Amino acid sequence: MPFDPSSISGYFQYLLGFAAAFFAALWLSLIFWTFRDIRTRTRDSFARVLAILLVAVLFLPGIVIYLIIRPGRTIEEEYQRTLEEEALLKSIEEINTCPGCGRHTREDWIVCPTCQTKLKKTCPSCRKLLELPWNICPYCGAPSTDNPSAPPADSDQPLQV
Known about the structure:
2 domains, single chain, mainly alpha
């Protein structure tokens, strides 16, 4: 079979056309992927345009640079992390602590058993527990009368028993 150089040129053109189509499709798909990815990671329109232009102009080095500088978390992941932090802070704030010694106390304690700091007072009418700064009982409406020998609510002095 004779060797025909023009047939090699034809095959080379088909191969070159296929490679060009492949790289064009790869280039467009990387631009589209970058657009979708940056949209989930930031709301800043300038950052979005800059990321897409980076990949469109620099192609493969651009995608590597984009992967290095893109935000680490998506907007959804950042929102979930914020919710988790708020839940943790809320659970920490809900723990009752003694203002005198900082130890954990229970909601129904009147006096801290460790340092004897007054934590709550009782309503003279209905005998329910009241916060120290309250001047009226929210349960029965009776005015609260403080014990004159009790320390003020913001005092760290232990209660004299």
